[in-house]
Model the fold of this input.
Amino acid sequence: MKIRKARSTDFDSILNLYQQRDLGPKFDKVVSTAVIEDEDKIIAFADFRLLLEATILIDKNIPHRKAVEVIKELIEVGKLEARKHGFDSIHAFTTVHGFDQILAKHFGFKYCKGSAQYLAL
Done:
């Protein structure tokens, strides 16, 4: 097996890997790529891209209506900043039970396929 950076000539093989997982390729904000070849066939692909993550902290003691208002304002600021820096999405990793449903129902957030995980370096 051999690992190397992906090349434009690898696109069909990479697209095939995406299709095997019912995913569409997304190559924006990519900072690096890698493919693994085995017997001259690409058997694995990775891209490493920048991701815009939102952290929203709200005082637990403010009224619910006020909390909704400030969330809305902060999300609008986040959308403006994301677009200004060339991002087309904002990711939110929620820790408060039910907050993911609020983001989806009232603010247009979508659920990602799979689960969110991170690797501390």
Remarks:
- The first strand starts at residue 2 and ends at 4.
- The chain has two domains: 2-49, 53-107.
- The longest helix spans residues 64-84.
